[in-house]
Amino acid sequence: MTEKHNKDDKSTVKVLAERLQPGLNENERQLLSASELGDEEIVKQLIDRSEASAEVLDFQGRSALDLAIIAEDESLTSYLIRKVSDKLIHQGLLCAVEQQRTQICELLLKNSMYDLTSSDRQASEHLNLISITENGTTKNVHPKNTKSKVRIMLKEALMRASIKNNFQIVQIIMLKGICLEIPHDYFCSCKHCFGDRHNDYLGFCNRRLDTFRALASPAYISLTEEDPVLACFQLSKKFRHQKQIETEYQQIYDELGNQCEQFTLDLLDECRSSEEVKVLLSSSFVAHEKCQAQVSEIWFKGLQAMRYLNRFQYLLLSIPIGMVLLPILSVVYIVAPWSKVTVLLNTPSTRFLSYTCSYLSFLFLTVVAKLHYSDMWISLACDNTPTSAYILITLIFVWILGWIWEEMKQVWSSGIEDYAGSVWNIIDSFMLMFLLASFTLDIVVPIKVADAFTTNPLPLNVTGEQVNLSTLLHCYVTGEVDEVDVCPSVSYSVGVSWEPSWIPDPELISDILFSFGIILSISRISFIMPANETFGTILVSFYRTFTDLMKLCGMFLLILLAFSCGLAALYAAHRCQTTTFKGFRATLFMLVWSLFGFGPGEAPELNKDAPMSSLTNNPSRNVYTENLGYLLYGTYVFAALIVLMNLLIAVMSVTFEEVQDKRDVEWKFMRTELWLSFIEPGCPVAPPFNIIPTPKTIMKFVSCIKNCLCRCGCKSELKRTSMFKKKTDDPCNVRKVVICSLVRRYILHAEREKVEDDDDATEDKLRRLIELVASKIEGRLDDIENRLNTVDTSIGDVNKGANEIFSLQKTDMGLTEKLIEAQENYKKLMHKNWEENTMFYERKLEEINEMKDEKLRLVALGKMTEAERINDEMLAKLMTEFVPKTTLK
């Protein structure tokens, strides 16, 4: 037991020795304190006399060089650089970057260990102290790897400087030829990434995050990117992608994306003219007031008066312009495309108004033609089809072809990949496909039916059976279609039967396609809703909450599927006794309608009179089935209707509150997207006028054919291309000049803000330094006072000791005198005792002699008894000793 305790004590001491830093002596503490206060004289004195080492560290791991850098003492830093190892120099560089000491960083970077042009041998000597193995020992660096290690150290410093957003330090380090590399893809399987991920996953993730923080720094972007705005957009896109992969760091990537977005806004703040804004022309970036002002200027170009109208006035003015004037102006444009009307029609606001009116007219036309004038399509099977039907059908198909031609031009201009990347383009494609197929079937079916009656005798139907003429199509009898006769009260036998029945009915397919097409068409109106602030902000909220709705729908489907399977299995043997849970399909529909409150409360009840589909036919199982059915049904209603619905409301409320803060920004971004789609070059007229070729279009087509057939077409193409390059080079150069100017202004503005912050920080720093010095002086004064008090106490103790010694000496002298007196008395007593002893023995000798004589006399007389008595008295007398006196009187 004792040995076990000894082992535990030894292990505890070993752990403490490994984890606790050795204590500092007085000289080392004085060295660190002097370095912190910038007392160069004391530092030099302690180091030159070898009273303290320059590489000593405090409990925070800071060296004297680090403390001098924090104190911003260049002279002391320059002295300590020559006294410490290269490892501490690099640590000092990182400390200088963290403290943003630009001049000290420049001083440290002049050290030969950071010189990439020095010889490999010299670099290897400098790096020997830096290349430390895991067990704490140093190893030599191979000459081929020295420069790479120097670059790694400089990249580390550059990364920290970029994260601190210090333009000057970033520039100083980058002048050495150091740049950061974009991290590989998260799923990269190269040897380097695989090794880092396998050895230390947390370190791998932290290095990626630090690199992304540095790459997203405005200082690094400003000094490395030719187009900072484009770089910010690309980084934001990458951060959004990484956020979906590394969900645990989602907040960090959101902050980095916001940082890039804020940098673009700050650049836009530096714009001083509309031309600079045009050069730069993300949601907040687009929503910036200067950007919005520029886009609005372009949007209302040519119609500036409409910019200052309120919504009601704008609506009153746009309706007559869109419905009456625009068709007339479109016809004028087709006839004379070089007239001034083209300038008016080519303005973005007019194009938007023309598009909106054309689309609404198309919707009105299709809905009326399909629903209100549905008999028009049946009349195509008649001999005397009304002319209005042909006109209406022609307008519909021309309009559809116009929209198809518009989509084809978008595919041609933007490419199939970009075209498919827009949700609205996908909706347009399906909408036009459904409507075109539906209306085509509406035309083909009557024609085919009419052809069937034409090719067969009228008394016979398609199958050749005898029929009554009254059962044929009404137009063959009356020559017209009457709305009353469409749904006759008498049931007639069919004139045409659809065989075989498994082939889809074209009329049914047409109705289905039109249903989908008209839903998409009306939903497509939301594309123009961002033009209005009220509808646009509502649309933003709807988009954000729609995502939450889809997530909750996934949970609801899971619960719905679980309870549908459970209830269908429970009532499988009772499918003849129930109509609500009769199979999986009936159960599914029942539970769906129960979610909206249309489910009966007695749904789990069974009809006891109906037979069971069970082998046992046990009537008592009905009770258990009903009870369990009520339990499952009630649990479903509680889980789906109460829990999930309230959860959906809570989640949507939270999302709506989050959207409220950015609702205006998101709406402006959506509106700008809508505006830009009409600001881009395009056809000035809307469908169906866009399919009518203009003289300008015909001339371009002829010129294109001529260039293709002409042999000199290649030369003219080269000449045209070179002219195009000359024209496009100038905007690129202008863009570079503008971006450089904006970056310079941003850097100056950032440095100015930094100086202002530094002034405040300097005051705080000076105050803290004064407090530090005052506290140290106060500590010194307290120490001196304590020492003086100690001296006073010591002097008092000395005086007290002297008095005690003097009193002790007096007491000792008195005792000595008493001792001498006692010795004299003792001598006297001893002399007296000796005399008395002598007298005692003499007297005893005389008495013994007398007794001997008396004994001899008695023996002679024959008195033996008396003689023996005298002999005994003699013996007793001989045994008597002298008792001296021990006290003095």
UniProtKB/TrEMBL annotation:
Its main location: membrane. It is found in: Membrane. Residues 188-250 form the Transient receptor ion channel domain. It is a multi-pass membrane protein. Gene3D superfamilies: Ankyrin repeat-containing domain (1.25.40.20). The chain crosses the membrane at residues 314-336, 352-373, 385-405, 425-445, 549-571, 630-654. The keyword Transmembrane applies. Keywords: ANK repeat, Ion channel, Ion transport, Membrane, Repeat, Transmembrane, Transmembrane helix, Transport. InterPro entries: Ankyrin_rpt-contain_sf (IPR036770), Ion_trans_dom (IPR005821), TRP_dom (IPR013555), TRPC_channel (IPR002153). The keyword Transmembrane helix applies. GO terms for biological process: regulation of cytosolic calcium ion concentration. One of its GO terms (molecular function) is inositol 1,4,5 trisphosphate binding. SMART domains: TRP_2 (SM01420). GO terms for cellular component: cation channel complex; plasma membrane. This is Transient receptor ion channel domain-containing protein. It comes from Mytilus galloprovincialis (Mediterranean mussel).
